[in-house]
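Hi everyone, sorry if this is the wrong subforum. Our group has a chain we'd like a structural model of before ordering constructs, and none of us has done structure prediction before. Sequence below.
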Amino acid sequence: MAKYDYDMFTIGAGSGGVAASRRAGSYGARIAICEESRVGGTCVIRGCVPKKLLVHGAQFADAFADSVGFGWAPHMPAFDWAKLIANKDTEIDRLNAIYKKLLSDAGVALFEAHGRIIDAHTVEVAGKRYTAANILIATGSHPTVPAIPGIEHAITSNEALQLPSLPRKLIIVGGGYIAVEFAGIFASLGTEVVEVIRGDDLLGGFDDDVRVALAMEMRGRGVEIRTRTNIARIDKYPHGITATTTQGEEISADAIMYATGRRPNTRNLGLDEVGVQLDANGAVVVDEGSRTTVEGIYAVGDVTNMLNLTPVAIAEGRALAETLFNDNPMIVDHETVPTAIFSQPPCATVGLTESAARKKYGAIDVYRTRFKPMKNLLAGRDERTMMKLVVDRASDRVLGCHMVGADAPEIIQGLAIALKCGATKTQFDQTIGIHPSAAEEFVTLREKVPEPKAAAAE
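Answer:
Right subforum, don't worry. Here is the predicted structure as tokens:
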């Protein structure tokens, strides 16, 4: 008779938890998973998937406007927000059902209720206790909002995906990727958008040229970006809301959305009681093998607050399954991970920013270009693409690739392979470009950007 009910019990059926459970189940392990919300987690249910569907819907505004320059008669069809949301919900329902089937096909037992850890080998779900040789925490994260007067009148990205009608005017607080993505969606659909940020530029932590280029293009699309601004209070009125800044300025709108950060879902899991260490932000502390401070308990994905990207959570989950159940120890490499912002225009990046590269390597070479894509010429659109390479001068190795412009995520994905393989600038130069394309610019960059001191002296 088996010592435990299961070989692994996973708490949280998001991307990381499902990936780990399915892979482990495929190796014959006895696996159970519990989820108090819908199977699929943040990404599938209320994150990147539904948001990307809205991005696709919003991009038709550009296509209709640009088509006139290519000979199509001016025509702007009517937009139906409710239909887009309904179709999006139908697709999410379909994906939710698929995720459940994938778990079932892998022999994973699904409990649709909250799970709590009782000890290193016991999980309690809906009043019943189950034992497991290993426990995996994959509970993800949730949006956070500041404690200011009237914050109950604000929405987050969760509610923005379910608004019953399209706002005429929307305030978005925050300058991270979620904020700029929703700003692009709503602005393209005709909403007047005011984005409020504490700092001087959007996308803190990204390359400075990306931050500046995106802000420039977003303003060109009509998004008002108010820098060095904080909201002190929110008041609700019959016609909408009024946000008052710390400087005393009032901004009125139909709604206000906060995208100012997320926090790991570690409350009410019993982690303190069993000795699982959390950091100051409430994230589960893990080592490179996803091991927590309690033997037999692991954690992957956003709940660890290491690198909050869906593909990273999936990779961590699969690596854990390989290690525990396939005699194939694996460690996920968190270096050179590509990421994209599905803003309008989109951004994508892989590797080091210019400032990080200077700090780590000292002498570097920077190549940068800004140009108007061919499509924009006939369309009459002023929007420009920015591309940038950061290169280690000593080894000639490409350290970072950054892009703002159409198809940036698709282009950077391919370059991520090159960086992972240690490609050099010489090898980029020796690669034949595809013409005419925007992507060819990455292999035709020849002029170095002047050193910062030299540029300042000119």
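For your construct planning: The mean pLDDT is 96. The first strand starts at residue 6 and ends at 11.
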